[in-house]
Design goal:
Chain A: It is found in: Cell inner membrane. The complex is a heterodimer of chains A (354) and B (295). Chain A is built from 8 helices and 20 strands. By secondary structure, chain A is an alpha+beta fold. The chains are: A alpha+beta (354), B mainly alpha (295). Chains A and B meet through strand 6 and helix 2 of A and helix 9 and helix 10 of B. The structure holds adenosine-5'-triphosphate and magnesium ion.
Chain lengths: 354, 295
């Protein structure tokens, strides 16, 4: 088991620099989720950690040792590739068993570990098949199984559940968490999926175009997004942004927006006249006839347990999560309120949290 | 035919307009000669009457009892097996070496195809000279490293003549294998190797568990192409030894050629070549069946 530390890591492909100055530390036993949009460099960072891609700048430390020039086979890592990278000429059983055979694990032990992995992943009926005879989701589970049977110091997972259906994904989420609770292997897990990040991570690293935007616990990242970008990226329904100006209202700070005046929590950085952008999560705004915000209802979309109300405000669309029993006629004005503690305030210029 | 008619034929659903030319070519150049060959094997040329005479199964009976045929078949098999084995192993080894992206290797890869543009008969002549015991460079070199006694004429010694011919064969055709294998290696996916590195596999393990199985189709094609060609070996033995000394390098093709064109035994020559055709077809089919790749 090991710590992983990135010290001012940079990556260039020829003349193109896609990553610079990545620095963070992953503690022993920690489960870290890398979150970020497509193309921000998540796979590249994992591949550098695995040793499949050279580190252009900086030092990569695993277990306290600099491993920039250590061969992948000597790094004691297991990896689930985004594109699976299964062995096409081996049956599922051998795909999973390969690393154990190479490590000269006794055959009986190999058999029991492969069968355990196959059972956990619902792959038992497919052990005798070749990868090309499997569906995408089944292949992905084989890739997962290949990592699970390993006794590695670090697990690297590159979107390992992206091709599974919702139910299987939920099942696998708990399986992976349980596996981690049992093995306590340091894990770096890449995903696009909010829920995966929120439910599985000890620590979330939000990336943006080759840089780190925020590092924190799931609650930190959700409750105190460091920037407008993070606020936009995290949260299952996309956040409402309202630009405005800081004013003083009843002795406390508030922000005047075209949609209405919103009270915010006091902060020394908030001076009257300051241009800011407010972030209001749809789940935090409540329908309130006496509320300060006003928008015209357009349509309601039922989500199962509740509903999303889409409105048209002066700043464009405004979304709120509402009780699914509530009915709003199209074009009617709806008023909303939000507690000051739930309002995220960002500097209009730098887009950084105030 | 008017343009409209041509157009109608070209877009019709019938396969015949497209198949007919090919069928015609096949019929004239393959099927007819084959049937004629079968027919010929039941006849024999009679020089006195300058005509063919029906002899029934006489040619086939003769073949069965012909020690020289069985000897030639043995030589052919030996030649085939040794050449194929060495060309595959050497070809694979060189292909693996040349697959690296090192400076200068692109030129080496280009140079490889050069042996293939030399006509085999000419290559045979070159080696005939190089293996000469008086002034041959190859004989001299082999003598220097102690592999060959300086006074021994390689191609005129029964125990060495086949080796002498095989050297020319292997020199000329190993690059062919290298080219096929290199094309195969270049088309292999990189991901399984990355996964294998992470799984801790050594280069040898990767070669055995990934490269060889992934290359099996390519290897099968190479074996088939080269194997069929090897079985009808003619040029090198004809030019270098004419089958000698004695019958040490007599192959089936050479024997059939001799019977047909030197002794004018057309029927027996046809029987011999038909037999080697049947052997090649049977072997090729067994091979295709055995080598069937499932992954
Ligand atoms: N071999 C390469 N040569 C040049 N550019 C590359 C190479 N590999 C990746 N890139 C670039 O690096 C950036 C990051 O790629 P990467 O695959 O790490 O993204 P990602 O965050 O994993 O995206 P996704 O979520 O879509 O998988 C992309 O802009 C990509 O175009
Ligand atoms: Mg990726």
């Amino acid at each position: 088991m090991a710590t992983v530390e990135y010290q001012r890591i940079g990556k260039s492909f020829g003349a193109v620099t896609i990553m610079r100055d990545i620095s963070f530390r992953i503690e022993d036993h920690e489960f870290v989720v890398l979150l970020g949009p497509s193309g921000c460099g998540k796979t590249t960072l994992l591949r550098m950690t695995a040793g499949l891609e050279a580190v252009s700048q900086g030092d990569l430390m695993i277990g306290g040792k600099r491993v920039n020039d250590v061969h992948p086979r000597d790094r004691s890592i297991a990896m689930v590739f985004q594109n699976y990278a299964l062995y096409p000429t081996m049956k599922v059983y051998d795909n999973i068993a390969f690393s154990l055979e190479v490590a000269k694990v006794p055959p009986a032990e190999i058999k029991s570990r492969v069968e355990w992995a196959a059972a956990t992943l619902n792959l038992t009926p497919y052990l005798g098949r070749y990868p090309k005879e499997l569906s995408g989701g089944q292949r992905q589970r084989v890739a997962m199984g290949r990592a699970m049977v390993r006794e590695a110091e670090v697990f690297l997972f590159d979107e390992p559940l992206s091709n599974l259906d919702a139910k299987l994904r939920a099942h696998m989420r708990t399986e992976i968490r349980q596996l981690h609770n049992r093995l306590k292997t340091t894990t770096i897990y890449v995903t696009h999926d909010q829920i995966e990040a929120m439910t599985m991570a000890d620590k979330i690293v939000v990336m943006r175009a080759g840089k780190i935007e925020q590092i924190g616990s799931p609650d930190d990242v959700y409750d105190r997004p460091a920037s407008k970008y993070v606020a936009d990226f995290i949260g299952s329904s996309s956040i409402n942004f309202l630009p405005g100006t800081v004013v003083v209202d009843n002795g406390g700070p508030a922000v005047d927006t075209t949609t209405g005046r919103v009270s915010v929590e006091p902060s020394p950085a908030l001076k009257p006249g300051h241009k800011v952008v407010l972030g209001l999560r749809p789940t935090d705004v409540v329908v309130d006839a006496g509320g300060p915000l006003a928008a015209k209802a357009i349509l309601t979309e039922r989500l199962g347990h509740d509903a999303q109300l889409f409105c048209e405000g002066p700043e464009g669309s405004f979304v709120a999560v509402v009780d699914k029993a509530a009915r709003f006629s199209e074009g009617a004005e709806v008023r909303f309120a939000i507690p000051p503690s739930k309002v995220h305030v960002f500097d209009a210029e730098t887009e950084i949290r105030i | 035919m008017s343009i409209a008619q041509v157009k109608r034929i070209a877009i019709s659903d019938s396969p015949w307009p497209w198949l007919l030319p090919l069928i015609a070519l096949l019929a004239v150049f393959t099927i007819y000669p084959f049937i004629y060959n079968v027919w010929l094997s039941f006849h024999e040329f009679v020089p006195k009457s300058r005509g063919l005479k029906f002899v029934g199964f006489a040619n086939w009976v003769q073949l069965w009892n012909d020690g020289r045929f069985w000897g030639a078949l043995g030589v052919t098999f030996l030649y085939f097996a040794v050449a194929l084995t060495i060309e595959i192993i050497l070809g694979m080894a060189i292909a693996l070496l040349l697959d690296a992206e090192l400076p200068g290797f692109a030129m080496l890869r280009a140079v490889l195809s050069m042996t293939l543009v030399i006509p085999p008969a000419i290559a045979g002549m070159m080696f005939l000279l190089m293996e000469d015991s008086q002034f041959g460079a190859l004989s001299y070199l082999l003598g220097l490293v102690g592999l060959l006694d300086k006074a021994t004429p390689m191609l005129a010694t029964s125990s060495l003549a086949l080796i002498g011919v095989l050297i020319a064969e292997i020199w000329q055709w190993t690059p062919f294998m290298v080219l096929i294998f290199m094309a195969g290696l270049r088309s292999l996916p990189a991901e399984p190797y990355e996964a294998a590195m992470i799984d801790g596999a050594s280069s040898l393990q990767m070669f055995r568990r990934l490269t060889l199985p992934m290359m099996s189709r390519v290897i099968a094609v190479a074996v088939l192409l080269r194997g069929i060609d090897l079985f009808r070996v003619f040029d090198y033995v004809f030019v270098m030894t004419s089958g000698g000394p004695g019958t040490a390098t007599y192959t089936v093709s050479l024997y059939a050629w001799q019977q047909t064109f030197s002794f004018l035994k057309w029927g027996y020559g046809a029987t011999l070549s038909l037999t080697s055709l049947v052997i090649v077809m049977v072997m090729a089919n067994i091979f295709i069946r055995v080598a069937k790749v499932r992954w």
